[in-house]
Amino acid sequence: MTAHLPDGLAAVMAGRPYRWYPSLPSTMDEARAWLREGAPHGAVILADEQTAGRGRLNRPWQTPPGSALALSMVLRPHLSALTHLPLLGALAVAESVAPLGVPGLGIKWPNDVLVGGLKLSGVLAESEWDGATLRGAVLGIGLNLSQDFTGSDLDGVAVSLRGALGRPVDGLTVLGALLTQLDALWALVGSAALVRAWRARLITLGQRVTVSTPAGDLMGMAEDVDADGALWLRADDGTRHRVIAGDVRLRLA
Ligand code: BT5
Predict the structure, then answer these.
(1) Contact 118, 159 (CB under 8 A)
(2) Ligand 1 pocket, residue 114 CB under 6 Å
(3) What mean pLDDT do residues 34-52 have?
(4) Is the CB of 62 under 6 A from ligand 1?
(5) Rounded Cα–Cα distance for residues 107 and 105 (Å)
């Protein structure tokens, strides 16, 4: 599927600077290097395979060849909008696959796109600095298209669109829809409208969750999110905690 991406890729990427690679360690590093060389807002690095794909806190992200979308987009956000980038990525994925009729689609705070509790997509936002000056950011998105995770180490954790729908999907069509959503939703970054739209797809609110922080586990009720996308957690002892994405791992529990 994605192995054939270059065949129609130019049409999908029309007008957008992009670089496609059959294999990369991680699209994040390539995009960050391109950003430092002056890549414009919206430029995209794509790879068919990643040999060292990464998630948050350097957790591994699997991208075997011919099975998934792996891309990193160069963004030039305002400093105050940095916290919205993970929301942008997750919402764009959810909105782009929703029309396929994916059952049980939702966003687990802050930026995992789940289908029936299994992870379809992960999002990673990284910023690039010149001393204290923000140079830009890179939004990485991994979206499973056709893997069968049965019997793998991600069995019961991950799912692909093919697995969720029971039929193959066209990777280029999904990519086109995702880029369309990213471009459209970019206009909302920094605004309450983005948070509202993302919040509407969150499956986490009203759930009991466990948040793993460097200071230990916190259990309680996920009550709400704020304008930055941070989570308000009511701990079992009644105290209220503001949890910021990136430092934590969340389990629905
Ligand atoms: C994420 O991290 O979910 C962010 C993943 C971002 C990947 C994209 S791909 C393009 C770009 N280039 C990169 O190198 N990265 C970005 P986190 O929330 O930390 O989740 C990581 C966890 O997800 C792992 O520990 C596994 O449990 C699980 N996982 C790994 N590969 C997966 C996959 N293909 N599908 C679903 N879950 C996966």
Answers:
(1) yes
(2) no
(3) 98
(4) yes
(5) 7
The tally of CA atoms less than 13 A away on the side-chain side of residue 46 is 29
Q: Which tens digit of pLDDT belongs to each residue from 105-118?
A: 999 999 999 999 99
Q: Which residue's CA is minimally distant from atom 14 of ligand 1? A: 53
Task: Characterise 152 by phi-psi region: left (phi > 0), alpha (psi -120 to 50), beta (else).
Answer: beta
pTM of the predicted protein model: 0.95
Ligand 1 mutation target, pool 29, 49, 61, most atoms within 8 A of CB: 61
Q: Count Cβ neighbours within 10 Å for each residue of 103-112 and write b for 16 or more, e otherwise.
A: eebbbbbbbb
Q: How do residues 147-206 score in pLDDT, each as one tens digit?
A: 999 999 999 999 999 999 999 999 999 999 999 999 999 999 999 999 999 999 999 999
- For 76-98, the DSSP string reads ---GGGGGGHHHHHHHHHHHHHG
Residue 2: the pLDDT is 44
DSSP H or E run through 186: helix 171-186
The SS3 assignment for 253 reads coil
Q: What is the per-residue pLDDT across 57-113, written as a single tens digit (0 to 9) for each?
A: 889 999 999 999 999 999 999 999 999 999 999 999 999 999 999 999 999 999 999
Which atom of ligand 1 is nearest the CA belonging to 54? 14
Domains annotated on the chain, with CATH = 9-201 (3.30.930.10), 208-250 (2.30.30.100)
- Ramachandran angles phi, psi of 157, nearest 5°: -120, -45
